[in-house]
Amino acid sequence: MKIILAEMAHLDQVIDLFDAYRVWYRKESNKEMAKDFLTKRIKNEESIIYACENEQGKLIGFTQLYPIFSSTRMKKMWLLNDLFVEPNFRGQGISKMLINQAKNLCKKTNACGVLLETETSNDVGNNLYPATGFELEENNFYFWTNS
Q1: Which backbone phi and psi does 138 adopt, to 5 degrees?
Q2: Which of 21, 63, 72, 120 is close enough to 98 for a disulfide, judged by CB 3.0 to 4.6 Å?
Q3: How far is residue 3 CA from its own chain's centroid?
Q4: Where are the domains of the chain?
Q5: Alpha carbons 39 and 110: distance in angstroms, whole number
Q6: Contact, 38 vs 30, CB < 8 A?
Q7: pTM value?
């Protein structure tokens, strides 16, 4: 297995992973909108998508990172917004490989860190992230929805 930078040539496989990720988060499947969304992110260079490719060339996991900025640190940081591995391939260290690639991106771009959020009910993620060096912050997280 290897981690690759997903590009337009990988779009169809990334769409499948992205759609499965959204369904896991209780969203309706919508591959047409996923295609439009991911095409814009890749073409406009608005996100970085890394994927894990198995020996057969199939993408079996991905992470998507968005650039953001820290005013207090006066540096770029990365938001690790999405992380998903196909259920049949979990427990093989793929998530850790993807997270390590995100950390490498952080170092390569001289960013100050990687930020992520997960649901409090996500037991796997809440065990994975501290095991990969992330620290749970004592900040309140507020969100306003325009719906």
Answers
A1: -100, 45
A2: 63
A3: 13
A4: 2-131
A5: 26
A6: no
A7: 0.91
Residue 93 corresponds to which tokens in the numbers above? 């260290």
Q: What is the fold, at CATH topology level, of the domain defined by 2-131?
A: Aminopeptidase (3.40.630)
Cα–Cα nearest to 98, from 47, 137, 132: 132
Instruction: Select from 76, 82, 96 the least CA-distant residue to 19.
Output: 82
Which residues are CB-neighbours of 98 under 8 A, at least 6 positions away?
A: 3, 50, 52, 61, 62, 63, 83, 85
- List the beta strands (DSSP E) in the chain: 2-5, 48-53, 59-70, 75-85, 114-116
Question: Rounded to an integer, what distance in angstroms lies between the CA atom of residue 2 and that of residue 116?
Answer: 23
Q: Is 45 left (phi over 0), alpha (psi -120 to 50) or beta?
A: left
| One-letter amino acid for residue 6 of the chain | A
Closest alpha carbon to 5 in 56, 42, 46:
42
Q: What is the pLDDT of residues 30-81, one digit of tens each?
A: 999 999 999 999 999 999 999 999 999 999 999 999 999 999 999 999 999 9
Per-residue pLDDT reduced to its tens digit, 105-122: 999 999 999 999 888 888
